[in-house]
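Example record

The entry below shows one chain as it appears in the dataset: sequence first, then structure tokens.
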Amino acid sequence: MVDLSRRKIMLEAAGAAAAVGVAASAQAASFGNPDRPAEGAINAKTASATSNPGPQSSAMADQFPNFQNPPATDVNGMPLFWASFNNAHKRQQSGGWAREVTQDDFAISETISGVNMRLSAGGIREMHWHQQAEWAYMATGRCRITVLDTEGRPSVQDVKAGDLWYFPPGLPHSLQGLGPDGAEFVLAFDNGKASEFNTLLLTDWIAHTPPDVLAANFGVPADAFKNIPVDNLWIFQGDEPPPLAAAQAAAASSAGTPPFPFVFSMGDMVPLIKTRGGQVQIADSRNFKMSSNIAAALVTVKPGGMRELHWHPNADEWQYYISGKARMTVFDTGPKAVTADFNPGDVGYVKKSLGHYVQNTGNTELKFLEIFRSDHYAEISLSEWLAHTPPELVIQHLNITKQTWDQFPKRRLDVLPG
């Protein structure tokens, strides 16, 4: 954190000098100012080199201070790893709305696509199924979910803010908002190209099956289906459902219930890691048995705190920012390093094994999700690695003293205090 503060001071000083027409001259190979190649405002030779007099939207530019004035440690460029639900088109229907971020709009996001959905009290996301696994985080309100597994065992459950659900590929399910104010949630599919606007819908299949086939399949007269919707329902306003116990009884099967629950209370779980800087709650197949292909962490960072320098060796990371303000620098071979800013509703993406940190840049708590297409959560901490490597090696690599190495944290901290 001391190093980051020094860099910030250097950049602010350079910016102030440029503002009064004084050129900021680079100091060769000075700490926090790599100059091969020379990047950052601190390396500008004239005030006009840092100005931006052309057309621009200040409202948008102000959301990305680190794109407009990158740290001098940023180098080269890389595919954009920022996206947002805030500028995604909403598909609004009578019972709610949905918007999505898929690889069609967010090229880097190969393993995960995301959907933000709102259901009114009684609003129904019609009965359907996907070719992909569906993982969900409840942001607000209450929702009722129904699902049937491959052994014919039904599950009907109510979920609240902070809860998760997981549906394996192909399992049929439905979602309905509950009172008093419905539900809002985020869905993650384990395929970057998956779309909530392209699902296998009950009404579509019934409408496009010959009436005599429907009659034979269900054992009822063909005209029993004469009033089926011609157009699919997708999200529609329905009546609020009966009490949970009554719904469970009505849906019960002699096959019994699934051996593992489709829901998990992430918000209520004891954090795996808790420090003065924040906490990390992890849900994967080790504690959420049903979630066989998506692992997740809910990270909370206090003001001034930082998600430590680290990487994930087993999967790409898809991030969803819930509250607060953040900045993240991603490091790649090349070298390449780019810093971006994130606000509530934004999405980040870090490719497998690329180094990064996430810093709370606001004055309120930062909370975000890390989601991986994997059955388990895995992480490598930079400081833990260096602390458990023979010190002579580290000292010769970084040209530091043994006293400095002795101060490195000896275990993974995850979230550092300010």
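Notes for this example: The CA atoms of residues 319 and 348 lie 5 Å apart. The two ends are 7 Å apart (CA to CA).
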